[in-house]
Amino acid sequence: MKPSEGLVIAYAKGIKPYQSSAWRITIIFSALVTVIIGTLLLGMYRQLINEQEFQLDQHLNAEKTRYQQMALTLDRHSFATQVRSADPKVALIVWRNSLDLIGSLSMIPKDMPMLPEKREFPVFKGGADKLHILTGGMVMTRYGPVLVATRVDQLGTLIDKFTNAAITALMLTVVLTLALGYLFSKAILRRLVQYNRLSEQVEQGQYSTRLPVSWRQDEFDMLAQQFNRVLDTLEKNLAAVRGVTDNIAHDLRTPLSHLRIGLEQLPEKSEEELAEGCAIITEELDHCLATFDAMLSLTRIEEGQQTLELQSLSLQHICRDLFEMAEVMAEYNGQSLKLMAGEEFSVSGDKYLLFQALFNLVDNAIKYSGEGATIIISQNRNVISIQDNGPGIPAGSRDKVFERLVRLDPSRHHKGTGLGLSMVKAILSRHNAKIALMDNQPGLKVQITF
Amino acid sequence: MKILMVEDDATTIEYVVKGFIEQGHNIETATDGHQGLLLATSMKYDLIILDRMLPQLDGLKLLAALRATGSQTPVLILSALSHVDERVKGLRAGGDDYMTKPFAFSELLVRAEKLMQRGESQPMVTNLNVGPLGIELLTRKVTLDGQEILLQPKEFQLLKYLMEHENQVISRTLLFEAVWDYHFDPRTNVIDVHIAKLRRKFEELGHGELIETVRGAGYRLRQGH
């Protein structure tokens, strides 16, 4: 197993939900929620305490005012009765009447402040809940100091209850978010692991593998669709490369085997034949090199690696050059070549490449339209067309001719690399020009639109 | 003429050196970029033939350094990097011509001689004569055995080029470049067709042998045997 394979498998199979990014997000999210809820609860807790404090102050001050008023309006005896009969649930009142203590407590703690200042103090009582916490302060009345206090331990209980509830709520939040996050990351991981397993299959050469796409159309489905599209292109390109390889084998092997034969025969040749033999071999070799160069060039143009030397070009001028160069060739083949120039048009392009492409098309027309044919190069504004009245190309094969190394002539009778039209198409597409093959009835019409 | 060749491949050096010495030129060689630059800047040459991928100092850097010293010596770049943009790069860096490997010595020779003649003051040539063939450059009149023949403009240019390089094998690429302002390998018989027409006109006057086809190399204009 290659090291990279090992790594992929380890990643696909060895990853645990808690190592995944979904889990990391869950933890961050959970912590965030806990902090937010905690802050809220703390705020509520503070509010609660402040409110209680306020209530207490209100209560104690109300009692203070009440007893001061009472002392002013009642006589000493009635005041004592009122103090004695005070409801301990509302307030505990103790009045020091000369030496006696009248009220619900048997003592007054030392150093009690005057209301509204107050202080907490413990009180022991018989019974189950022996210790009470009271809060209170002194009030000066007409009949002497009175202690006004109230129980605050219920308040403590309330706060305890609140704290317990808050802690429970926080714990629940943490546990629930973590559990959900775990399940969530596990679900995501299941899909990722599946994708991983399938892409591993692709890596091992099963290019027909495709990722499943669910009805949900979520981001994973988008990813899967994109991945599938990449695989489609990859498969198509691989098939093309395979085709090219086969054709290369044919197109380079034939001249190479001729070379080999020629070289083997050289020593047997007589002095006079030797030069001729060498020349033939050189020609074969040049043909191989030309095919090889054309393939490289085509790849570079198709892949966009070759930078175009852009300049402003007159289509009329190019067509005139084409005509001038090809006229003699047509004449030599017993054909007539005509030029029909229309309205001028300028394009920005690579002069040599563009001319090469157009020349290739004219050259093809001359090569394949047969003796006596008429070939017309015409240009009007942004359209150049090259038409002949030769045998043409059957409709079904018209797309095929642009493929690399495809030659419709199975015997490969005419010398060529089989890359010409692929090159034409690549060059034209780099110039954003469109090429169309049409029926000229009879013959072929090639139309290029810039 | 004195030539410097900067090249690291021994086979190529041997092939080229042998060829130039046979042609009566004086050629020195350097096998790496540093040595090449040292020689190029310290001695006077009529031409430098420069490889691009050299040990120690890249060919284009050598060229840039040479041009930076103000040297105007013609430089012919001979490289395995064959792409059009590589060619453009080479010419932009200060090269005067660009040839790709593999190459035929005959073509290298023609290109080298053209570059070496560039510096010399050319006597004004108005007539070219090879054997029975004569052309007047100003009037574009062509005569064969004293009889005038009519040529198309392209045919005239081809013939002129062949006559200027009498007895030399001229490759199709060179002829193509000489006649047309396009640089690409046409991979067609466009040159052959033009030559065939030219030859037919000569044949009518009994001089078909003037233009000789050299298989695997190109064409040669020769005086009648």
Keywords:
heterodimer, A: 450 residues, alpha+beta, Helix Hairpins, Heat Shock Protein 90, 3 domains, 12 strands, 56% helix, disordered N terminus, B: 225 residues, alpha/beta, Rossmann fold, Arc Repressor Mutant, subunit A, 2 domains, five-stranded parallel beta sheet, four-stranded antiparallel beta sheet, 40% helix, elongated
Q: How are the SSEs ordered, and which strands pair?
A:
The complex is a heterodimer of chains A (450) and B (225).
Chain A: H1 3-14, H2 21-73, H3 76-84, E1 92-97, E2 100-103, E3 119-124, E4 131-141, E5 144-151, H4 153-203, H5 219-265, H6 271-302, E6 310-314, H7 315-332, E7 336-341, E8 346-350, H8 351-368, E9 374-380, E10 383-388, H9 420-430, E11 434-439, E12 444-449
Parallel strand pairs in A: 7-9
Antiparallel strand pairs in A: 1-2, 1-5, 3-4, 4-5, 6-8, 9-10, 10-12, 11-12
Helix pairs in contact in A: 1-4, 2-4, 5-6, 6-9, 7-8, 8-9
Chain B: E1 2-6, H1 10-22, E2 26-30, H2 33-42, E3 47-50, H3 59-68, E4 75-79, H4 84-92, E5 97-100, H5 105-118, E6 127-130, E7 133-136, E8 141-144, E9 147-149, H6 153-164, E10 169-170, H7 172-179, H8 190-203, E11 211-214, E12 218-221
Parallel strand pairs in B: 1-2, 1-3, 3-4, 4-5
Antiparallel strand pairs in B: 6-7, 7-8, 8-9, 10-12, 11-12
Net shape of chain B: elongated
- State the order of secondary-structure elements of chain A, H for helix, E for strand: HHHEEEEEHHHEHEEHEEHEE
Beta-strand portion of chain B reads: 15-25%
Got a strand count of chain A? 12
Helix content of chain B: 40-55%
Query: Which consecutive residue ranges of chain B, at least 5 long each, have pLDDT under 50?
Result: none
Helix content range of chain A: 55-70%
Instruction: Give the C-level CATH assignment of the largest domain in chain B.
Output: Alpha Beta
The assigned structural class of chain B equals alpha/beta
